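Hi F.,

I've been meaning to write this up properly since the lab meeting, where we talked about keeping a consistent format for the predictions we share between groups. The idea is simple: the sequence comes first, exactly as it goes in, then the structure tokens exactly as they come out, then a line or two of notes. No screenshots and no reformatting. I'm using this chain as the first example so we have something concrete to point to.
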Amino acid sequence: MKAFAVALVTSLSLLGAAPALAADLPLPGGAPIPPSSYYPVSAPVNWGGVYIGLNGGYGLGNSKWSDSLGSTNNFAVNGGVFGGTLGVNYAGFGDWVLLGFEGDFDWSGASGSGRLAVRRVSSAVPTITSLSTSPGLSRAALCLSQRT
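Output, unedited:
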């Protein structure tokens, strides 16, 4: 039984045996390939370009009328709104600055009417138009450093 225990311990110790390797000696079979530490950077997002869009909704309002005789009236001016948007953004100032121009045109069915003294009065909003510019900072300005 003692001989069997010695043989078992000896065989198990030989299973874990490996050659000693010094730090300056090459490994047998070539050097292992290290995991990749290079992560490709994605292309920067360009926020420049032309865009077009549609919009719709419902407008709620109030119209207040008065005349020289002191008669007044308030009535609702409500109706649907539908229109479009056309714009362009220019991002040619580097990675930081963005300049945009936008125009909106909406058709409106908002209208209302009421009585003022002895006559009938009405209000209507046939169209709504706006032009705007939008200077700003692009996404690159918000990401000063990225860590992976």
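Notes:
Helices lie at 2-15, 139-142.
The first helix runs from residue 2 to 15.

If this format works for you, I'll send the rest the same way.

G.
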